[in-house]
Amino acid sequence: AELRAAEAIRREIRRLVGGDVEVKMLSEHSAIVRADADLIPKIIGRGGRTVESLQRKLGVRIDVREREEES
After folding, report:
1. How far is Cα 21 from Cα 37, in angstroms, rounded to an integer?
2. From the CB of residue 42, how many other CB atoms can be counted at a distance below 10 Å?
3. pLDDT in the model for residue 2
4. 35-7-52-31 Cα dihedral, nearest 10 degrees
5. Read out DSSP for the chain?
6. Using CA atoms, how far apart are residues 13 and 3, in angstroms rounded to an integer?
7. CA distance linking residue 15 with residue 58, whole number of Å
8. Band (1; pLDDT cuts 50, 70, 90)
9. How far apart are the first and last CA of the chain?
10. What is the pLDDT of residues 12-68, one digit of tens each?
11. Distance CA 37, CA 56 (A)
12. Among 4, 8, 22, 27, which one is most buried in terms of CB atoms within 10 A?
């Protein structure tokens, strides 16, 4: 179930903002999304509306964080 949820989150974000993200499921209802810095404002949306809408649609709490640079 978590794998399907992660894929659904990835697919929805790609559809909304056109970028690819990493999704780590913490539980069935909680995920961390790591994205490039330029995508984060688009994923969160004005006043948090986009991420709130995603959370409602998918039934998963989403924590958006910046993807770490590989050294």
Report:
1. 11
2. 14
3. 80
4. -70
5. -HHHHHHHHHHHHHHHHS---EEEEEETTEEEEEE-TTTHHHHH-GGGHHHHHHHHHHT-EEEEEEPPPP-
6. 16
7. 14
8. confident
9. 33
10. 999 999 999 999 999 999 999 999 999 999 999 999 999 999 999 999 999 999 998
11. 24
12. 8
Q: Would you say residue 71 has pLDDT above 70?
A: no
User: Dihedral through CA 46, CA 48, CA 52, CA 54, nearest 10?
Assistant: 60
CB 50: neighbour CB atoms within 10 A? Answer: 19
What are 6's two structure tokens? 């992660």
